[in-house]
Write a structure and sequence with these properties.
By secondary structure, the chain is an alpha/beta fold. It has two domains: 25-299, Rossmann fold (3-Layer(aba) Sandwich); 325-433, Nonspecific Lipid-transfer Protein, Chain A, CATH 3.30.1050.10. The protein is built from 15 helices and 14 strands. The longest helix has 26 residues, at 128-153. Belongs to the short-chain dehydrogenases/reductases (SDR) family.
């Protein structure tokens, strides 16, 4: 908006952003860090009231931020904050936080269901404790928090519920590698589907999902070393959420993607959101893009390492006593493992390879200075990776990112996912060595 004033016969034009969320009260779950906090800070700059409903009251050893540090940032940005210790699986805690919000701010206008848990493992590898955690936080927590907040939203002039959840894409590829996580995340989306109709004309209920991976503490833990440069910052989600939450209450029942929302409102410069502008971005889960084409699309956009193996140095042609491409790859691996790698990894990997050069191989990064071999490992593997032999060679030469291989279904992982991520450090080392 333009504000024009005259002072001492001099006309001054000042650009002022219309503060659409000024005075609104937002109840945001999981707002102590990441996407939730980014949305909170965006609204706070308008002068909004922010209820930070999250579990982290004490500093986490691996994750930054608490509800109290987030509250300080909200107030520094121009908003008012209420920090509440809330496990959204606990009906009493949610109810108490909602009542505190109403007592302090006079009501609640917007609910952002952001809190989420993720474990990307298959049915046999996912402990029921993890299944219960994901279903309890993602699905039940979203439903419970919505149920508690809705009576207050019905009194608001601009009521909104925004769930950070994906479109309901029933392509089996999004289920087969992590059924429990998909069920839990889609539970949040089903809340949108149902509640949008149930409260049509009374409350706007929508879902928002990122087109690309977003850099958060959780992504850093899941994606391993080097993942950040393939991500956008949480600011893109915050900007898209701001647009959605500024709409009238009849704008409801939509499953929205951040980039599409911003494009529809005139945005053209998306490099501003990139952690590393110009670097190829990692597409997010669950979107309509055929998963099996993701790797090809990434390669078309330059998603290959700075070093691309030449014919004289690629695994398929490297000279070794065994001449086969898999044997050659393991010869190269042997040359890049030592006690330091073993000490920092502490895991045994088994590779069940299919295709032209199928077979079972192992990589011991748990004892001595490390070892590799054909056949079953001497002791039970911590991680079992199943993939085509050709994709295995591409992965270790840097031509296929492990994350992309997993997302597109080319790589199946059983066992400890965090140890699987550690293996990427060895691959990165091999690429730097220009194998």
């Amino acid at each position: 908006a333009l504000y024009i004033t005259t002072y001492l016969n001099v006309t001054v034009t000042v650009s002022v952003r219309f503060r659409k969320l000024a005075g609104c009260t937002l109840f945001i779950t999981g707002a102590s860090r990441g996407i939730g906090k980014a949305i909170a800070l965006k609204a706070a700059r308008d002068g909004a009231n922010i209820v930070i409903a999250a579990k982290t009251a004490e500093p986490h050893p691996k994750l930054p931020g608490t509800i109290y540090t987030a509250a300080q940032e909200v107030e520094a940005a121009g908003g008012r904050a209420l920090a509440c210790v809330v496990d959204i699986r606990d009906e009493k805690q949610v109810g108490e936080a909602v009542q505190k919000a109403v007592d302090k701010f006079g009501g609640i206008d917007i609910l952002v269901n952001n809190a989420s848990a993720i474990t990307l493992t298959g049915t046999l590898e996912t402990p029921m404790k993890k299944v219960d955690l994901m279903l309890g936080i993602n699905m039940r927590g979203t439903y419970l928090t919505s149920k508690m907040v809705i009576p207050h939203l019905l009194k608001s002039r601009s009521p909104h519920i925004l769930n950070l959840s994906p479109p309901l894409n029933l392509n089996p590829i999004w289920f087969k590698n992590h059924t429990a996580y998909t069920m839990a995340k889609y539970g949040m989306s089903m809340c949108v589907l149902g509640m949008a109709e149930e409260f049509r004309g009374q409350i706007a209920v929508n879902a928002l999902w990122p087109k690309t991976a977003i850099q958060t503490a959780a992504m850093d833990m899941l994606g391993g070393e080097g993942i950040a440069k393939q991500c956008r910052t949480a600011d893109i989600i915050a900007d898209a959420a701001y647009i959605i939450l500024s709409q009238p209450k009849h704008y409801t029942g939509h499953f929205l993607v951040d980039e599409d929302v911003l494009k529809e409102h005139g945005a053209r410069d998306f490099d501003q959101y990139a952690v590393k502008p110009g670097h190829p971005l990692l597409p997010d889960f669950f979107l309509d893009e055929a998963p099996e084409t993701l790797v090809k699309l990434m390669e078309q956009h330059g998603a290959t390492p700075a070093f691309k193996p030449s014919s004289s140095s690629s695994p398929s042609s490297a000279k070794s006593s065994s001449s086969g491409p898999i044997e050659s790859t393991f010869d190269l691996i042997r040359g890049n493992i030592n006690e330091d790698v073993v000490n920092s990894t502490q895991a045994i990997y088994q590779f069940d390879l299919t295709g032209e050069h199928g077979g079972v191989w192992f990589l011991d990064l748990k004892s001595g200075s490390g070892s590799t071999g054909k056949g079953q490992p001497p002791v039970k593997a911590d991680v079992v990776m199943t993939m085509d032999s050709a994709d295995f060679s591409k992965m270790f030469s840097g031509q296929l990112k492990p994350t992309m291989a997993f997302m597109s279904g080319k790589l199946q992982i059983k066992g400890d996912m965090m140890l699987a991520i550690k293996l990427e450090k060895l691959m990165s080392r091999m690429n730097k060595a220009k194998l």
